[in-house]
Amino acid sequence: MPPKPKKSQKKKVTVEDVSPTVAGTSGTAEKGKGVERFRNAPPLRTELSSGSSSATPKIWVKYADSRPSKVVFDGRDVDDLIRAIKKELSNQLGDVDVNQITLRRHGEEKDLDPGLVVDQSFENNSSTPLQVTVEASIGTLTKTEKGKFVQKRGVEIPFPLDLTRSLKAKSPGKFSQPPNMDKDANPKEENVQDYFMCECKALENYASIQNKLIVRGTHFSPLLDTRKPDFVFIPSDSPLDSLNVVAVGEIKKRVSESFSNADIGHALSFGEKILQLQPRRNYVYVVLTDCIIINIYRVSRNESFSEKYTQFTYDYIKSEYLTYKKQASPSKGWRYLVTILESSPERLGWVEPSLRFGQETVKLVRSIGVGRTSVVYEGIYKDISVAVKMMKKANYLPCVERERAVLEELSELSSPHIPKILFYDENTLVMTPLGEKVNNLRKKDINNIITTLKQVHSYEYVHRDLQKYNFLRNLDDSKENILIIDWGYSTNNREDTAFAGALECMPDEVLKSLTNEENIVYGPKVDLICFVRSFYLMLHKPSMERVAFDRDDDIKKRAQMILNFWKDCSKSDVWDSIYRAIEGLDYDKLIQELERFF
Ligand SMILES: Nc1ncnc2c1ncn2[C@@H]1O[C@H](COP(=O)(O)OP(=O)(O)OP(=O)(O)O)[C@@H](O)[C@H]1O
User: Fold this and answer.
1) Which of 47, 298, 381, 413 sits at 20 to 30 Å (Cα–Cα) from 593?
2) Cα distance between residue 550 and residue 130, in whole Å
3) Ligand 1: distance of its center to the CA of 525 in Å?
4) Ligand 1 near 249 CB (within 6 A)
């Protein structure tokens, strides 16, 4: 007899909130500008203490909709006051970088200069508090806003490496005739890109340059998750994998003297992506060039992933000419580029990708999959191949925690079809076995999957996301067992949780709930129908777009489309018997029904 499912709970349909990475910057080039101007003004503390020796200056402040609070102020200028406010309002501002906080006087619309001395004019009461505002954080900015932000608030740094002495006597490799050299020329961007790649190839083949790195065009390959930078710097003997990228670059046409803010923001976002994909690395260089000038940025990780947000800081090196002007003397920008090519990966911030769990080390070998919430790597631990699943953002930490808890509980089953956890931390799971993607199921897989689901359901867990991509095959095992992965959205009936999964194989009830914005009922049947529908999709491969359950304004429309798809598909005696078996939670009958397809 199949285990009787617990009475299903009603749950509110909610789309998992996939909020963007929130990032800030530590670079405030503007900070302190006003200090000079106000150096001679008497600070508030001096004034009050001269009137009354016991006076401790207090200033009323108000953040968002909270009630005004009093801040004890012991400093000199607005910058000190901001720090005091951050401390006082630590509940509200604990995660906010101090550089994101600005102050305005009551009823005014201008931010106070951080260097402004806090004088008597700051004395106020609860009805005239200073307004505390938190600047939009970098992660929520558009690329254009990010570019603007970096120009305005990034920190200029000198070129951080010892400049090469290499020279090149003859073209190519000197960037001396880019197609956009003539002001009136208006070549296509791809011509400029091709020119850059050819010139880099010439440098690569030029024996006098000690290329430790080479430039690889990646414009057509989604190397960084789904992102395609124009080129990457990579050791010449390393396979093209996101783990091996040492630095990254974009080739854009300039609109005027400088690059557009959108282009700068776009290039920087590749740097951020590398930091996300190379977990131990602290910074990465980003090159932006039009073959005439070269801009170099350094994107650094600002905070540990354990904190609430992923944060980056941006430094930039003054823009220089890349074009080798005179016969004998290379331009500074050319030297920058060649210096990068001659540098060791480590000198450019690359760190050998390995992870430590206590005394144990897992070496990352290559990235093998990117899901909505995670990046998955092949790793090696003591000669065993392992899967290393690492969350993309702090928002997804609950998924990793959930997956760990469920897999640990299900490890009692010792099932060859459920991954086992070797190590974990709050952001990462190291699991065995390492599986391979499947396109089709085999007859024995049907029994293995349904029997495993029966066991899992007896623990009152529902996987919720059974779809083609979550079935892998363990080719290291002589039986080539099927493996069910991605338990991060599994749930049990005892708890309340938001809905997740892949729309295309969801049961009609769930799809209807989505279209009608109604509550849905959870239970083991969801898994069985998802599995049957995934099996059908794998078997017949109808043209049906993969629709992931994600933030999507069109979700209702898509759910309706999929409802129609299944309505058209599933009118037959075979489907009737399958649905009857699922309705009665008759796992054995369901196996029989599905095995008939082989
Ligand atoms: N044990 C494993 N062996 C081999 N590859 C794996 C393993 N686990 C995961 N992968 C690969 O990584 C991809 C993403 O993994 P997973 O589905 O667990 O991540 P996710 O972020 O939860 O994805 P999503 O929610 O989008 O399905 C898988 O589709 C698969 O290609």
Assistant:
1) 413
2) 40
3) 23
4) no
Indicate which atom in ligand 1 lies nearest the CA of residue 391: 21
Highest mean pLDDT among 89-103, 108-122, 333-347, 498-512: 333-347
Q: Which of 390, 432, 485, 551 for a ligand 1 pocket mutation test, highest count of atoms within 8 Å of Cβ?
A: 485
Number of Cα atoms under 13 Å in the Cβ half of residue 401: 7
* pLDDT tops 50 at residue 306: no
Query: How far is residue 550's CA from residue 140's CA, in Å, rounded to a whole number?
Result: 18
The contacts found for 61-69 with CB under 8 angstroms, 24 or more apart, are: 61/85, 61/88, 61/89, 61/103, 61/129, 61/130, 61/131, 61/132, 62/129, 62/130, 62/131, 62/132, 63/89, 63/92, 63/93, 63/132, 63/134, 64/92, 64/132, 66/92, 68/126, 68/127, 68/129
The predicted-structure confidence for 161-197, as pLDDT tens digits, reads as follows 999 999 988 889 999 999 998 888 889 999 999 999 9
The verdict on the CB of residue 421 being under 6 Å from ligand 1 is: no
**Binning pLDDT at 50, 70 and 90, where does residue 502 land?**
confident
CA of 373 to the centre of ligand 1 (A): 9
Rg (C-alpha) for the chain, rounded Å, is 29
Distance 41 CA to ligand 1 centre (A): 61
CB of 357 within 6 A of ligand 1: the answer is no
Pocket flag, ligand 1, residue 488 (CB < 6 Å): yes
pTM, entire model? 0.69
Q: What is the pLDDT of residue 551?
A: 45
Name, in order, each residue with C-beta under 8 angstroms of 241's C-beta and a sequence gap of 6 or more: 223, 366, 367
Q: 370 C-alpha to center of ligand 1: Å?
A: 7
Q: How many secondary structure helices (H) and strands (E) does the chain include?
A: 14, 24
**Integer Cα distance of 324 and 334 in angstroms:** 6
As a whole number of angstroms, the distance between CA 529 and CA 216 comes to 45
- Cβ of 368 less than 6 Å from ligand 1: yes
Tokens of 579: 């649905």
**Does pLDDT of 580 surpass 50?**
yes
Residue 337 pLDDT greater than 90, yes or no: yes
Tokens of 452: 């495993």
What is the Å distance from ligand 1's center to 430 Cα? 12
Q: How far is the CA of 411 from the centre of ligand 1 (A)?
A: 19
Instruction: Kindly report the average pLDDT of the chain as a whole number.
Output: 83
Q: Which of 76-80, 327-331, 574-578 has the highest mean pLDDT?
A: 574-578
Burial label for 256, CB within 10 Å (0-12, 13-18, 19+), is: exposed
Most confident of 212-226, 393-407, 426-440, 559-573: 426-440
Q: Whose CA is nearest to atom 1 of ligand 1?
A: 434
